[in-house]
Amino acid sequence: MKLKIFKVAVFLTSLTPLALLGWFALTDNLGANPIEVITHWTGDSTIIFLLITLTVTPLRKLTGWKDAIQFRRMLGLFAFFYGCLHFTTYIWLDQFFDFPGILKDVAKRPFITIGFASFIFLIPLAVTSTSAMVRRLGKRWQKLHRMIYFIAAGGVIHYWWLVKKDIRWPLIFGVVLGVLLLYRFWSTQSLAKIAGRFRRLQVSPVAQKVQSQ
Ligand code: HEM
Q: Ligand 1: distance of its center to the CA of 86 in Å?
């Protein structure tokens, strides 16, 4: 029951960026260039949710809070949701569905190319996020979903590339992603080491002697 209430709370909190944006639009507070504000707001929300999604597993491992995993799918889908809003803002409000122009832009401006690629790679992750898909894909699901690290890196590079002078925010996002990647590398390495030691112990002459007795 407690977990259910917590899930609803996380869901509603995740809607806050959208609610705030709606509020600013309704109260005419989007400034002189509303399209730019919406693009930036939705872009920031996408990268933030991608990074929050990536913190779930380390949080679970470090705290032993098993239920944390139940939030990963929801947070990942919110990243996709804000990514969709960001992309829609671009193709609708920015480019007015001028598809030849969009294709040219994707090919010409590297930061758009990498943002576009990151968004495209997010689609299979969202589609395969259901429990049925997790069961159906088995080990392949984990391999596929590891792509989220590349997608987040693509998002950071996309942001870094578009800023002209002030690199503070892309730098902050990059450092957070770097720490998460290091943790992942470190935790899988140590797990591999433990597994390796265990295997060596099993095949060691002493262990074989013990087993044969
Ligand atoms: C996973 C996918 C993506 C992420 C994480 C992402 C993230 C971001 C972020 C963080 C910003 C900067 C926000 C700020 O300045 O406060 C941004 C800006 C922008 N993004 Fe994305 N983005 C993604 C995909 C895309 C796609 C698919 C497009 C269009 C094809 C796109 C087009 C833009 C544009 C036009 C800007 C504003 C550029 C400017 O200010 O000149 N992004 N994005």
A: 7
